[in-house]
Design brief:
The chain is of the alpha+beta class and 305 residues long. Helix content is 25%, strand content 20%. The protein binds a DNA duplex (16 and 16 nucleotides) through helix 6.
Length: 305
DNA sequence: CGTTGAACCTGTTTGC
DNA sequence: TGCAAACAGGTTCAAC
C-alpha cells in the first residue's frame, strides 16, 4: 500500500508525535516480520526517539544512545509492506488482532504497529548494519536530475514499469505512482527503458516528481486501508488518472483505460495515449457492472490500532 | 540480463 | 446465497 508519498506522510506524523519521547517497554505479538525480535526487547527500552527519516519506502526511527550511557546510537528500521500502519495511541486500548508491536512511551501513549499481512519489516540496527542495509538503493525520485534519471534507464532492456518499481534504480516508487507518472508522460508501461527517447525520459522524470510532490501534499493515496500516523486517510486517490480506473474514460481522450500485467503487476494505462508494443495483450475488462455500494471509504475512521 | 511465477499472509471483492 | 478464485499499496527467489 504505502509508497513514497504515504511513507513520507506517516513519517511527518510520527515526527510530530514521538520526537523526544522515551520508550518504556516493548510488547510483541507475531514476530515473523522482525529481523531479531529479541534485539527489540533488549535494546529499545530507555531509548529516546531523536529523529524520524524516510529512505525510499523505509522509515528510520533514530534512537538515542542507551540511557545508561552505554550502547551506540541505533535506529528502528520500519517498512510498512502492503498493509502496515504505525501510530501512537492512548495506552490501554484493547490490542487489535493484527497489532504485533507496541512500544509504551514515557507520556503514557503506545506506539503501535499493525499489519494484517505482515509483509512489512522491522529491524533494530546500529550504524554499520544500517548503512549496509541502505547501500545499493537507487536515486531519490524527488531529487534525481533528468540527467541521472536517464542514465539509470538508458541501456536497460527491462520494461520501464519494471525499472520504475526497481528500488535499486529509484527508491520509493510503487505500483500506483509508476502508473500515474507513465500515464502523464504518455508512455506505455511495457516499453523498454532503452527505447525511451531523451525527451520521453526527461518528461517522465519531471512528471514523476510533480506527482509525488502533489501526492505528499494530499497526504498520500488511500485505496482501501491506508491511514497515516493520525489515523486519517489520504486524498490523492481522487487525483488518480490511471491506477484503478480500468474501463473508465481516459481523462485526455475518453478511451477506455485498460489493465495488463507488466512486471508482474496490474498496470493501468490508456491504450491510445500510451501506445505500446504491437499486439501487446490487454486483459479482458473485469468488474463489469459495478454497483455503487455504500463506499465505506467515505467514513472517517478514527485511529484504532 | 530479463521475465515469469510462486511464495510470504490475510482480507476483501468478484465470478459462477 | 455460497463458495472458490482473483486480487490487493511490496519484496524476494528459483527457474528458464
Amino acid at each position: 500500500m504505502p509508497e513514497l508519498p504515504e511513507v513520507e506522510t506517516v513519517a511527518r506524523g510520527l515526527r510530530r508525535a514521538i520526537l523526544g519521547r522515551r520508550i518504556v517497554s516493548v510488547s510483541l505479538g507475531k514476530t515473523d516480520f522482525i529481523d531479531d525480535p529479541v534485539a527489540l526487547e533488549q535494546h529499545l527500552p530507555g531509548r529516546q526517539f531523536e529523529a524520524v527519516e524516510r529512505y525510499g519506502k523505509f522509515m528510520l526511527l533514530r534512537l538515542s544512545a542507551a540511557a545508561n550511557g552505554h550502547g551506540e546510537p541505533a535506529s528502528l528500521l520500519v517498512h510498512l509492506g502492503m498493509t502496515g500502519q504505525i501510530a501512537p495511541i492512548p495506552a490501554g486500548q484493547p490490542r487489535g488482532k493484527h497489532t504485533h508491536v507496541s512500544l509504551l512511551l514515557d507520556d503514557g501513549r503506545e506506539l503501535r504497529y499493525t499489519d494484517a499481512r505482515r509483509f512489512g519489516r522491522m529491524a533494530y540496527l546500529t550504524e554499520t548494519p544500517l548503512a549496509e542495509e541502505l547501500a545499493g538503493f537507487g536515486a531519490d525520485p524527488l531529487e534525481v536530475g533528468s540527467e541521472e534519471f536517464r542514465s539509470r534507464i538508458q541501456g536497460r532492456r527491462a520494461r520501464i514499469k519494471a525499472l520504475l518499481l526497481d528500488q535499486t534504480v529509484l527508491r520509493g516508487v510503487g505500483n500506483i505512482y509508476a502508473d500515474e507518472s507513465l500515464w502523464r508522460a504518455r508512455i506505455h508501461p511495457a516499453r523498454l527503458g532503452a527505447q525511451l527517447s531523451k525527451r520521453e525520459a526527461g518528461t517522465l522524470c519531471r512528471v514523476l516528481k510533480e506527482i509525488l510532490k502533489k501526492a505528499i501534499v494530499m497526504r498520500g493515496s488511500s485505496i482501501s486501508d491506508f491511514l497515516d500516523a493520525e489515523g486519517e486517510p489520504g486524498e490523492y486517490q481522487r487525483h488518480h488518472r490511471a491506477y484503478g480506473r480500468e474501463g473508465k474514460a481516459c481523462y485526455r481522450c475518453q478511451t477506455s483505460v485498460r489493465r495488463a500485467i507488466v512486471a508482474g503487476r496490474s498496470s493501468y494505462f490508456c491504450p491510445k495515449c500510451q501506445p505500446g508494443p504491437r499486439g501487446f495483450a490487454l486483459l479482458p475488462l473485469r468488474g463489469k457492472t459495478r454497483k455503487r455500494k455504500n463506499r465505506r471509504n467515505a467514513r472517517r475512521p478514527s485511529a484504532r490500532l
